[in-house]
Amino acid sequence: MMRKLAKQTKEVAKGVQDSVRAAFRGVLNLVKSGSDIQQVQVSGLADETIQDLELMQHFGFTSVPPAGTQAVVIPLGGKTTHGIIVATENGSFRVKNLKNGETAIYDSSGSTIILKNGRVIDIECDSFNVKCKQYSVTASSGANFKTPKLETDQQFVSQGQISGNGGMAVQGGKGASFSGDVNQTNGSFKTGGDVTAGTVSLKNHTHQGDGRGRPNA
Q: Which of 96, 97, 42, 36 shows the shortest CA–CA distance to 65?
């Protein structure tokens, strides 16, 4: 009698276990990112297609995985239709060969932000846009820009010396104004206009005499 009861209990337990689905792998086909929690279509075993699984992500970070991304699905309560996705991976785009302790953020277009050992951060992209009210940079050793042009649409102010090793050109607006001494070393000064010192014009002025008591220009 006890053996029969034990056998029946074992069979019931096995039936319950078989009806409760364990975590499984799937492949993402489609992601709907317009809702509060992203809804995902996943291909599971064989021809199994599961609709509207929730893609759970950590606060402060969100991404839309491309089609073909592998996913780990946890069926809540053992029910496939109540599954949530807790992890994704796509080896086609993942940044490879990082060293121990390094971290990378990447997308499917090849843009990357890599936090490297030695307190080094490398960013690679085609266009880097920053939108903010105030932007401050403190570089105690220096800041280098390797670019054919550095432009601002408003005022440029330097609290230190401005050096133009390759020359300097100023045009448009109200021209150039200097406050303080202007020193020139070597070379010459050329202008197509006039030069005025105080109220005296270089082009249009008169001398008191030419040495013989006569005024001259």
A: 42
- Domains by residue range for the chain, with CATH: 21-89 (2.40.50), 93-127 (no CATH)
Alpha helices in the chain (DSSP H): 2-19
Tell me the whole-structure pTM to 2 decimals: 0.75
Tokens (6 digits) for 19:
């009806």
**Digit-coded pLDDT (tens) for 155-208:** 889 898 888 888 888 888 777 888 888 888 888 888 888 888 888 888 777 766
Report CA 126 to chain centroid distance, whole Å.
10
Query: What span, in angstroms and rounded, lies between the C-alpha atoms of 116 and 104?
Result: 8
Exposed / middle / buried, residue 8 (Cβ in 10 Å: 0-12, 13-18, 19+): exposed
- Lookup: tokens for 153: 């649409």
